[in-house]
Amino acid sequence: MVRMTAIVVCAALAGCQAVPGEGPLASAINKDAGRSSADIGRLNAAVFEIVDVDNRSAHLVSDYVSSALKRRFGIGNAGVGRAVIGVGDQLKVTVFEAGSDGLFSTSESKQTSIDIVVQPDGTAAIPYVGTVRFAGRTLEEARKAILAALVSKAVEPDVIIATGDTPSRSVTVSGAVGKSSQVSLNLSGEQITDVIAKAGGATAQPYEAYVTIVRGKRTGTALLKSIIENPSENIYVQPGDQVFVTRDPRTFTLLGAVKGNARVEFGANDLNLLEAVALGGGGNDYTVDTKGYFLFRYEEPEVITGLVGQGRFNELLRKGMKPNRDGRYPIVYRFDMTHPDSLVVGQTFPIKSRDVIYAARHKSVDFSKFLSIIGAPLGIAAQGAGTVSVVGSVGN
């Protein structure tokens, strides 16, 4: 009789939702998905969307992760472009003459080398030539300008210009590298990994080293591992860029009905959804809802529109979905372990740093808790939509 009363009381308590629990049930997460804060009934509640992890969504997310570097940097992968001389550059100008009695030749040598430094006004002085503008010109353009000025003065002259130190064509590399320094760029152009190598290389493993480029008012950050694995994404640096390498071990958080709630380091180049759950010891056989594995993430808007469509994304924005400071939006991926193909799909779904994986408890767990509460020897009053008191020992 008492057990039947417990069932009635539990129903009155809105499915035992009033019973203390570790996080929300799967039904609560599913219910709040795509709803505005007004619909949820809680001021400033976060608006999010739920997407099932299936073969399509797993491949879409995986493909984006492997090809998003240029978009993440927002800088592009342009080549070196037109390499020009700049203020402060050190040059060696060598003038050759055909005769032995010229301005720059003797009986012992038919050439003279002149070391110059480009001045703040962009010019430098050459004997018998005068002031020459170097800044903004390529080496060939500067060579032709000097040669043209010597045609009527020297004996069949020719000119070669070689670069020394080129501070106008340097980038600053600092952080978790062998030696923080200013790296001069060569004329053929250099990429991210080139300048990092010149600074002694990264001191952290590629899968936990992040590279940030500051160019003017724009910044972009990417994992060094992603840059190495995608050569086309190894963008060219430009003069004046600042490159920062930081060690930040990638971690994810595992919560809910699993054998170990913890913040876990990847400890590897890659990590998929199944591996992440396994690192926490897997789900608890007695409490986990196998249909209720959820991954909470702030996702790139391009990924969300690819998953739900532009129309649905716009609808979520109207309902109040907000981005974080990096321009990413909240999304929840739902993973159903009762499907046989989940063991295949889970291997292709990549985990990102700072992901939160939540394993919801089965709804029967709350009912069991409720029975244990009302079955206490001294009796406990359960309050909610209704109230019942059980005093003394409870039998059959």
UniProtKB/TrEMBL annotation:
UniProt GO molecular function: polysaccharide transmembrane transporter activity
Every Polysaccharide export protein N-terminal domain range: 84-161
Coiled-coil residues: none
Keywords: Signal
InterPro entries on file: Poly_export, Poly_export_N
Name of this protein: Polysaccharide export protein
Species name: Rhizobium deserti
Source species taxonomy: Bacteria, Pseudomonadati, Pseudomonadota, Alphaproteobacteria, Hyphomicrobiales
